[in-house]
Design goal:
The protein is an all-alpha fold and about 475 residues long. It is about 80% helix and about 0% strand. This is Solute:Na+ symporter, SSS family protein. It is a multi-pass membrane protein. Belongs to the sodium:solute symporter (SSF) (TC 2.A.21) family.
Length: about 475
């Protein structure tokens, strides 16, 4: 394992070094939270791919492939479709708004008083996403160092917190690019072909496995539909995803880079399912499908190369964890702390660093005591989509939507989701179905029976959608440089 240790040590040192470099770039709030809104298409598409393809898409994607065959790709395909829809329909408008959070967009569109409710829901979602991503570190460090779960969580979580606190979104972006490259090499260019060849190619896998492993719908139509409902819609409105959209230098870069990222996700999803299918052919009697990724890496790859692929899996987990952490910190400072009457900080970068550090430590602590992370993440996504999707998409696509309608839909959708979780269970599909349906009905009815949003608010909204915020920022910078 000496070669593997060397590769992992080099990777960890590189992440910390890149994070330290990001410290020099994060001089303003914009730098710290959205990388100064300066990313080009390559960095944008790379960091977007890194944040959405985490441990669930990598280790979890292989697990689904081991269990269901190629139809196990549907979870990651749903993520890729969500990215494609977001960037083809909404990314241009989001970039032009020049905001930092989903809550700020809602306040701008509806005239205020909405970000407090949306902020609480988004804060819970981003914190739980951070927790579940941090928990995944235990798998990799257990394989590498045979340490208990809490130690693996502490090691991986501390690395993510360190580089995130140092340079904020700049550090996260730079580390994401490195992680994107490692992930592409390790998973797509090494583990995928090695797994297929080791299993005897497609003919060899077909000879060893049931025909259902090569059916696209073997996982079940209900499951596929639920994946799209939760993950595709969740990616349309998640703060962790929007915050990456805000980093694009131009609306065109956001659209083009996002489409590239979406296509990459589709390829990555199929790769994970094929690796899992090959693992099933090679090791049909594993005690747990969760072990499929670690087993095929450990058994089929030589030292050093094995370390690179484990670093690729670690990259997937770290990119998602860091993206969720900076999103949770941004919601805390922009949407929640300001609503508590706290005065605007003199040094906003310092306040964001402290907030990121505190939330990171909280996430590590929770990850050490949480038992059922799948249910925890399901709760977070169900509440996010059921409570916020209608108000957000309605605000972007329907001018007749009102603040009262948005508030009512958020409250009703969230309450209905939570109620059906108690009635039918967390793993049931009914919470998200009833939550979304009731949220949409309330939004439409209340909006129709309340006064239209004032022309003054809609004028400001329209001006921002037309790019006025960017022009105003450039004018302010020019005036500052001339004074």
């Amino acid at each position: 394992m000496a070669g593997d240790y060397a590769v992992i040590a080099l990777y960890i040192a590189g992440m910390i070094g890149v994070g330290w470099f990001g410290l020099r770039l994060a001089k303003t709030k914009s730098d710290y939270l959205v990388a100064g809104r300066r990313l080009g298409w390559f960095m944008y598409s790379g960091t977007m791919s890194a944040v959405v393809l985490g441990g669930a898409s990598t280790v979890g994607g292989v697990k689904l492939g081991y269990t269901y065959g190629i139809s196990g790709a549907w979870l990651v395909i749903a993520i890729g479709v969500g990215i494609l829809v977001l960037h083809t329909l909404f990314a241009r408008r989001l970039v032009k708004l020049r905001v930092y959070t989903v809550g700020e967009m809602l306040d701008l569109r509806y005239g205020g008083s909405t970000s407090a409710i949306s902020g609480v829901v988004m804060w819970g979602y981003t914190l739980m996403l951070t927790v579940t991503s941090t928990l995944a570190f235990a798998t990799i460090f257990k394989v590498l160092f045979n340490v208990p779960s809490w130690a693996g969580i502490a090691i991986g979580g501390s690395i993510v917190v360190l580089y995130s606190v140092l340079g904020g979104m700049w550090s996260i972006t730079l580390t994401d690019i490195v992680q994107f490259v490692i992930k592409t090499i390790g998973i797509l260019l090494i583990l995928l072909p090695v797994s297929i060849v080791s299993a005897g190619g497609f003919d060899g896998m077909a000879a060893r496995l049931d025909e259902s492993y090569f059916e696209l719908t073997a996982i079940g139509g209900d499951t596929i539909f639920t994946y799209f409902l939760i993950y595709s819609f969740g990616l349309l409105i998640g703060q962790d995803i929007w915050q990456r959209v805000f980093t694009a230098r131009t609306p065109g870069i956001a659209t083009g880079g996002g489409v590239i990222s979406g296509v990459y996700c589709l390829v990555y999803g199929l790769a994970g399912a094929l690796i899992g299918t090959a693992a099933k052919a090679l090791y049909p009697n594993l005690a747990s499908a969760q072990d499929a990724f670690a087993t095929i890496v450990e058994q089929q790859l030589p030292a050093g190369i094995r370390g690179l692929v484990l670093a690729a899996a670690l990259s997937a987990m770290m990119s998602t964890a860091s993206g969720a952490l900076i999103a949770c910190s941004t919601v805390s400072t922009s949407d929640l702390l300001s609503k508590l009457g706290l005065k605007k900080a003199v040094n906003e970068v310092a306040r964001n660093r402290v907030t990121t550090l505190v939330l990171g430590l909280v996430a590590i602590g929770i990850a050490m005591i949480v038992d059922d992370v799948v249910n925890a993440l399901t709760i977070a996504y169900d509440i996010l989509v059921g409570g916020l999707l209608v108000a957000i998409i309605g605000g972007l696509a329907w001018k007749r939507g009102t603040r009262q309608g948005a508030l009512a839909s958020m409250v009703v959708g969230t309450v209905v989701v939570i109620t059906f979780m108690f009635v039918d269970g967390v793993e049931a599909n009914s919470p998200i179905y009833w939550g979304l349906g009731s949220s949409l009905a309330v939004y439409l009815v209340v909006s129709f029976f309340t006064p239209r949003t004032s022309d003054e608010i809609l004028t400001v909204w329209t001006r921002r959608l037309n790019g006025s915020a960017a022009a105003e920022e450039e004018e302010a910078k020019l005036a500052s440089s001339q004074s």
